[in-house]
Amino acid sequence: MSDPSANNTGLDGARAWIMRQGRWSPFEVAFWLAVFIPFFFFPTYLTLASQIAIAALFVLSVDLILGYAGIITLGHAMFFGLGAYAAGLLTKTGWGEPLTGLLISGAFVALVGFLVSFIIVRVQHLALLMITLGLGLLTMELANSMSWLTGGTDGLQGVSVWPIFGTFDYDLWGYTAYSYTLIVLFIGVLIARRIVNSAFGLSLRGIRENLNRMPAIGAPHQRRLQVIYTISAGMAGVAGALLTQTTSQVALDVLSFQRSADVVVMLILGGTGRLYGGIIGAIIFMVARDQLAGINPQYWYFWIGILLMIVVLVMPKGILGFLAQIWERVRR
Amino acid sequence: MTGNLLIVLFDGLAFGMLLFVLSVGLSVTLGLMNFVNLGHGAFGMLGGYLALVVTREAGLSFFVALPAAFVGAAVVGIACERTLFRRLYRSGELNQVLFTVGLVFVATSIATFLFGTGQQPIQIPDMLRGWVEIGGLRFGIYRIFLIVVALVVTAALVFGLEFTRFGAKVRAAVDNQRVAQGLGIDVDTIFAITFALGCGLAGLGGALAIEIVGLDPTFAIHYLIYVLIVVAVGGLGSIGGSFVAAALLGIADVAGKYFVPELGSFLIYLLMVGVLFWRPLGLFGKR
Amino acid sequence: MPTKTTFVIAVATGLTWSIGVHAQETVKVGVILPYSGPFADAANQLDAGIKLYMQQNGNMVDGKTIEIVRKDTGGPAPDVAKRLAQELVVRDGVDIIAGFALTPEALGAADVATQAKKLMVVMNAATSVVTEKSPYIVRTSVTIPQVNYAFGKWAFEKGGVKQAYTLVADYGPGHDAEKSFAQGFTEAGGSIIGADKTPVANPDFSAFVQRVKDANPEAVYIFVPGGGQPAAIGKALSERGLTPPATRIFGQGELTHPEALESMGANALGIVTTFHYTLEREEPLNNAFVAAYREANNGRSPDLFSIGGYDGMHLIYEALKKTNGDVSGDALVEAAKGMAWDSPRGPISIDPETRDIVQNVYIREVQEVDGTLQNVIIDTIEGVKDPLHGANN
Question: From the record, what ranges are coiled-coil (chain B) (predicted)?
Answer without folding.
Answer: none
